[in-house]
Amino acid sequence: MTFHNKNPSPSLDDQDDHETLKAVNNFENTENGRIIDSQRSVIDEECTNTVAKTDHVEIIHRKKAKVIEDGLATALTPPSDADQVVVEQTSLLDFPQVPAHLRFNKYVLGYYRPPLDIRGCIASLTYWHNETINILTHAVPVLFIASLIPWMLPWDQINTPWLPVIHVAACLAPWVGSTFYHLFMCHQMGQVAYLLLLKLDLIGIWFTQTFGALVTICSAIHCFDYETKRITLTFYLFICIVCLYQAMTVSTVWGRRFAFTAPFSIRVFCLLLRVSPWGGGAPNTTYYVIMQDVLAILGGYIGAVNIPEKWFPGKVDLVFNSHHIMHVLVVAAVYQMHKAAELDLVWMSSGSACHSK
To answer: What's the pTM value of the predicted model, to 2 decimals?
Structure first.
């Protein structure tokens, strides 16, 4: 009888196969572990990058929020004085935007200053606008004349009382009033401030028209008797006071200019007297006496008819409009007045003035 073993001993081949299978399983487990570890590293790196990106995005959002917050705070904070000056510098107005009392030249279309307080008006000296030339052409003569007073006249050759001092004051007067007028004419008080400044400007012009010509008038009648000179000067001053009242009460440009017609007529009469055999005056002064009025009249006319901006509206707002030209011509006219007065004062101070005529 044959008996079969239920648990036969493994053969050598079976053992080899078992070892091989075990090795394969171990290898696969090792490779799977490596793959899992590699994938875990990739996942960890991606998580780290995601967190970093999230933090970066959060930082960006925080910065944006800070910028917005600062911007709102800046917008809601009232501007400082320095900021206000910068705004004023860049906020020049066009003709339709300015107050009605400043719209007196419809051909100057832009570069008007907005209504300002005193500090703003003074600060407007630091930037360019359509009144800059007007301010400079009268402020500079004030400083120039004031600095030259000791040398303006040959003081050691003049002994005529009062007239030299009156002449110096007449040379300064128009520029002082006009500088204040053009500098502060845009004051935020509006038309009230403007009219006061306009009257100040007119008083300066009147003072020069009246007392600036006093030297040439006195020299023309220098050789007359005392009573004739007294009556002539009294009449002249009375006419000038009446003209001042007219200039201060009229409301038109041409009305203010024609208010000075009567004093001008008296000056023309004295010019004719000067060149006649009966009048006085220094030799070689006729040219200066004529030119002082010719230049003033020419400047006044150009200013009244708005030439050249009438031909080029908006093109000469900053430089070379009619008021700028008028200012330059008036400065030249006062210089002619000064030259005539200088010669006449020396002539009247000489002992042989009337004998040499």
So the answer is: 0.72
